[in-house]
């Protein structure tokens, strides 16, 4: 392999690496650097053994392809951002409403609306309540029709549970044997909508967040 070939390959590799690792904002300056390198290569080639013009064309085409790819990626990111913002604008109407999702509910003394998830074929079911530490604090018998249950947050002795987040599970049984344990959904008031890691996200009362795609229902808080 002659020196000119090595110089040509090095110039191409260096320019392509610079463009591929940089951002769209630097692609113009990178391209100017590449042209300067190509000019130096042409000026210092062996006049008795010049680099073939097709090699220069190949280098230019290679860098041009990288440039177009970077610009395409920037365009796709821009489109994705616009789509996310558009979805956020639509979700803004959910603020102040109650969203239903399989997340812990924040209890501050006000009753919590819980939607059980009883396994099909069960002949008995219970709603099990866990505190933020994961300890079971209550177990209530419920119906099999998966109708919303209002959890008042009151202990057996009549005292109120401490404020905080509570998680709910539905334990389904058949012939006195547990057949399934499923997460129950809760209704919580939406206080904010935001884009988090590129995902449309709802901030619920109490500060917990949930992806908008995990919400299974939305209702007017005044009608709950």
UniProtKB/TrEMBL annotation:
Q: Does the keyword Phosphoprotein apply?
A: no
Q: Locate the FlgD/Vpr Ig-like domain: which residues?
A: 108-171
Where does this protein have compositionally biased stretches of type Low complexity? 1-19
Query: Which of UniProt's keywords are assigned here?
Result: Bacterial flagellum biogenesis, Cell projection, Cilium, Flagellum
Q: Which GO terms describe its biological process?
A: bacterial-type flagellum organization
| Region of interest (Disordered), residue spans | 1-22
| FlgD Tudor-like domain mapped to chain residues | 90-216
The family classification in the record reads:
Belongs to the FlgD family.
Task: Name the NCBIfam families on file.
Answer: PRK12813.1 (NF009453)
Please give the function described in this protein's UniProt entry. Answer: Required for flagellar hook formation. May act as a scaffolding protein.
Protein name listed in UniProt: Basal-body rod modification protein FlgD
Source species of the chain: Loktanella salsilacus
């Amino acid at each position: 392999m002659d020196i000119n070939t090595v110089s040509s390959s090095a110039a191409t590799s260096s320019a392509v690496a610079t463009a591929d690792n940089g951002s769209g904002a630097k692609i113009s300056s990178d391209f100017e650097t590449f042209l300067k390198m190509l000019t130096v290569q042409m000026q210092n080639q062996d006049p008795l053994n010049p680099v073939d013009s097709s090699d220069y064309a190949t280098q230019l085409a290679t860098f041009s392809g990288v440039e177009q790819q970077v610009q395409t990626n920037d365009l796709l990111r821009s489109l994705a951002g616009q789509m996310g913002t558009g979805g956020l604008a639509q979700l803004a109407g959910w603020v102040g409403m109650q969203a239903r999702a399989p997340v812990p509910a924040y209890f501050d003394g006000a009753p919590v609306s819980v939607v059980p998830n009883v396994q099909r074929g069960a002949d008995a079911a219970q709603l099990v309540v866990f505190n933020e530490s994961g300890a079971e604090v209550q177990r209530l018998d419920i119906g099999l029709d998966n109708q919303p249950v209002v959890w008042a947050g009151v202990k057996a002795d009549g005292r109120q549970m401490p404020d905080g987040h509570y998680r709910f599970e539905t334990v389904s049984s058949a012939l006195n044997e547990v057949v399934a344990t499923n997460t129950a959904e809760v209704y919580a008031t939406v206080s904010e909508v935001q884009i988090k890691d590129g995902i449309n996200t709802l901030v619920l009362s109490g500060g917990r967040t949930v992806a908008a795609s995990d919400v299974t229902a939305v209702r007017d808080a005044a009608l709950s």
